[in-house]
Specification:
Length: 156
């Protein structure tokens, strides 16, 4: 993707009303970046009465993906984690909702994942470390456009 196309995508994502309606103020923290950049939305982090942590996660690709007549930049997922003091955390992705370059989100598709131990150093383990409070929270981005810009900058 050329730099101009990337800038056009970021501008579109920052002003799209559908995107603004779908997402409340975001507190995005970059958890890691490999094939995709993963951002934990700290504003959505909640703990239930059983101690399980639920958090929304943004997954972005620095290269737009064209599927049919639409261009996608990533997706949102809800994750649930069980934070264990003396062992690997467990967790799983509950759903996935794509994010198009025009800001359209979804619909959300449930996954069939089940809670499982998370491999140390993997994407899910990095997210669990944030959800479980093993890592000091920080604010890296406040919306999809700024998260995409950060992911692109980290790639260069």
């Amino acid at each position: 993707m050329t730099r101009m196309l990337f800038l056009a995508l970021a501008a579109t994502l920052s002003v799209t009303p559908a995107l603004a309606e779908e997402t409340a103020p975001q507190q995005l923290m970059l958890s890691g970046q490999g094939r995709f950049a993963q951002f934990a939305d700290m504003a959505t982090r909640t703990t239930d009465s059983d101690g399980k942590v639920r958090m929304r996660v943004l997954q972005l690709s620095t290269e737009a993906m064209v599927i049919g007549s639409h261009t996608y930049v990533g997706g949102w997922s809800w994750w649930q984690f069980e934070c264990k003091a003396n062992g690997p955390h467990t967790g799983y992705r509950q759903d996935f909702a794509s994010v198009r370059d025009d800001g359209h989100i979804g619909p959300a598709t449930p996954t069939r994942d089940q809670p499982m131990p998370l491999a140390p150093g993997g994407d899910a383990a990095e997210l669990a470390a944030i959800a479980c409070g093993d890592i000091e929270p920080r604010l890296d981005a406040t919306d999809v456009a700024s998260a995409l810009a950060l992911a692109k900058a980290n790639e260069d």
